[in-house]
From TrEMBL:
This is DNA helicase. Residues 277-484 form the MCM C-terminal AAA(+) ATPase domain. Its EC number is 3.6.4.12. Keywords: ATP-binding, DNA replication, DNA-binding, Helicase, Hydrolase, Nucleotide-binding. Transmembrane segments: none annotated. GO terms for molecular function: ATP binding; hydrolase activity; single-stranded DNA binding; single-stranded DNA helicase activity.
């Protein structure tokens, strides 16, 4: 046994002197500025049979591995004992990621990597790791190492002659480390339809504190720990899990985005050449909803989005297309919003009434999570960074959200400055909003700003605003009615199929009815298509397309009336450009052609006709 232990330490010595010599020397030279020694897990794993064994040990007994590495450093005698005791031993580049929802008791005390999006962070606070006590009677000193969780105090003075009960903590001679608590949530793209995302709390310490913000997508590597629950002062048999963070990394592209295989790519490429492409994509958005073709076409453009540009002067132009559906209740606004989340690689659906305390943007609160210190929590627009945030019932959102939304929509950042916390979070998402008019029905003669409780300054940040009314119209009503009943019938037929024997003409009936509600492109394929296009296609506007857009914009300016609720400003021109780029992206085209320009002029004109001039 003793042999084996020295052996492992010897193996670590061999590994460290071969692969980490520079890092170790840096720690010696630059401590305390460099106070973490990073061990590349993949290098370790690839360093022969002993490396493979050590790598397994890092996963299975990380606590022991860290102790062994400190012993190995002692044997190498290149670093002082003091530094060896204080240096953080960290592991990174672990290739196996465990899903947050797959974490079980089995993982306790093991090394795990989880990937997700940061939901909230506390501010950085000092945490005591070595408490220094002094006996007020005899002066005897006692040091106690502190773990995470409860503070440990000596029962009595260690001097057998004294044995005094109450010892005094001396903060100036104790050791503290910066500490921060973070809550990470599974990424929305990994969730299958409507599952509730699960979270894991992470304790971050020392030089890693302050390195992440809500909304960041990260991989946390660390040791899974458990903490006993306490209910009203009595200890429970249940334990809570948290991760003691070893290192933080940006996720690999493959984890981050939708996975696209070579076959997928071939399918996407061939689909992009389909002459019916635009019609098919439009028809694949919320197929159970009848009509609303223009809205669906606009949603298609929104999914693909324009190109975000960083200009040489440091400013940034957003590429995301914001869009608002205003209208009478019961016309499927909510249904369409919910469907979009299925198609957007990073979609989030939320209601303006707010399901979480963080609301739409972000909040800083003093709560239990931070044990009474400040916590910064990301709202929907931060969590939907790089995707579509579908926000229903925007007319009912909180006042603070409404004002924060101005910055969130245009600069695509959210600034929080409250008490101890100042932060700027990113919200590079496309907003798809829906709002019901205050009085139940839309009044064509009253300004929309008043009817949906949104100032014109906010309305002008939407690239497209659709006003949907529900006027009785016999032909349309009967078409919708047929469509709705067909959708229900398809559902019924599928249920029957699953629950018992079916009649001979069942399949024919199902096929006939499905035609109306089946998307020509299945949602999984469209999602990949969108992700692929956003990743690879950055179109450029051709001169001909540019002329069409500018001519239309000038015409608008000429017609515009300053008293209209949504004034025509340079924002509309930017909207036209973004929409044009999105239209080209749908075809996977690297140029915005006149046909794209005409398509978007038609849509913008339809929207403006309802709100700005008519
Ligand atoms: P809103 O959010 O606009 O108040 P909902 O999305 O809740 O409306 O829709 C109400 C119901 O009416 C939904 O079940 C929806 O499927 C149905 N519905 C409304 N309009 C249509 C339509 N054009 N085609 C199919 N179903 C519709
Ligand atoms: Mg609704």
């Amino acid at each position: 046994m003793a042999d084996e232990i020295t052996d492992v330490v010897g193996e670590w010595v061999a590994f460290l002197s071969r692969y980490c010599k520079r890092e170790v020397a840096e720690v010696e030279r630059e401590f305390p500025f460099k106070r973490s020694l990073y061990i590349d897990y993949q290098t370790l794993q690839a360093s022969g049979a002993s490396g493979l064994r050590l790598a397994d040990e890092v996963i299975e007994k990380p606590g022991k591995a860290i102790g062994d590495i400190r012993d190995a450093l002692r044997q190498m005698t290149v670093i002082d004992e003091e530094k060896i005791r204080k240096v953080n031993i960290r592991f990174h580049h672990i290739e196996r990621v465990t899903g947050i929802r797959d974490i079980r008791a089995y993982h306790i005390a093991r090394f795990v990597s989880v990937q997700g999006i940061i939901r909230k962070t506390t501010d950085v606070r000092p945490r005591i790791i070595e408490a220094f006590f002094q006996c007020p009677g005899c002066g005897t000193e006692t040091r106690i190492r502190q773990g995470l969780g409860q503070f440990e105090e000596p029962d009595e003075c260690s001097n057998p002659e004294c044995k005094r009960k109450k010892l005094k903590l001396v903060p100036t001679r104790s050791r503290f480390v910066d500490s921060q608590k973070v809550r990470v949530q599974e990424s929305p793209e990994g969730l299958r339809g409507g599952e509730r995302p699960q979270t894991l709390d992470v304790e971050v310490a020392d030089d890693l504190t302050g390195s992440v913000a809500p909304g960041d997508r990260v991989v946390f590597n660390g040791i899974l720990r458990s903490k006993q629950r306490v209910n009203y002062g009595t200890k429970s048999t249940l334990f809570d899990l948290y991760l003691e963070c070893s290192s933080v990394e940006a996720p690999e592209k493959e984890f981050e985005e939708v996975n696209i295989s070579e076959e997928d790519e071939a399918e996407i490429r061939s689909l992009s050449e389909d002459p019916e492409l635009y019609r098919k994509i439009t028809a694949s958005i919320a197929p159970s909803i009848y009509g609303n073709t223009e809205v669906k076409e606009a949603i298609a453009l929104q999914l693909f989005g324009g190109v975000a540009k960083d200009l040489p002067d440091g400013s940034r132009l957003r590429g995301d297309i914001h869009m608002l559906l205003v209208g009478d209740p019961g016309i499927a606004k909510s249904q369409m919003l919910r469907y979009v989340v299925k198609l957007s690689p990073r979609g989030i659906y939320t209601s303006g009434k707010s399901s979480t305390s963080a609301g739409l943007t972000a909040t800083a609160v003093k709560d239990d999570f931070g044990d009474g210190s400040w916590t910064l929590e990301a709202g929907a627009l931060v969590l939907a960074d790089m995707g579509v945030a579908a926000v229903d019932e925007m007319d009912k959102m909180a006042k603070e959200d409404r004002s924060a939304l101005h910055e969130a929509m245009e600069q695509q950042t959210i600034s929080v400055a409250k008490a101890g916390i100042t932060a700027t979070l990113r919200s590079r998402c496309a907003l798809l909003g829906a709002a019901n008019p205050k009085l139940g029905r839309f009044d064509a003669y009253a300004p929309i700003a008043e009817q949906i409780n949104m100032p014109p300054s906010l309305l002008s940040r939407f690239d497209l605003i659709f006003i949907l009314t529900d006027k009785p119209d016999e032909k349309r009503d009967s078409a919708i009615a047929n469509h709705i009943v067909s959708a229900h019938r398809v559902g019924e037929l599928i249920m029957q199929q699953q629950t018992g024997p079916v009649s001979p003409d069942h399949a024919d009936l199902l096929a006939a009815e499905s035609v109306t509600v089946d998307p020509p492109i299945p949602p999984e394929v469209l999602r990949k298509y969108v992700a692929y296009s956003k990743r690879h296609i950055t179109p450029l506007i051709t001169d001909e397309a540019k002329e069409i857009l500018i001519a239309y914009y000038l015409k608008l300016r000429h017609l515009a009336d300053e008293n209209k609720p949504v004034p025509v400003t340079a924002r509309q021109l930017e909207a036209l450009v973004r929409l044009g780029e999105a239209s080209a992206r749908i075809r996977l085209s690297r140029t915005v052609e006149p046909a794209d320009a005409e398509r978007v002029v038609k849509i913008v004109d339809l929207c403006l006709r309802q709100v700005a001039y008519d």
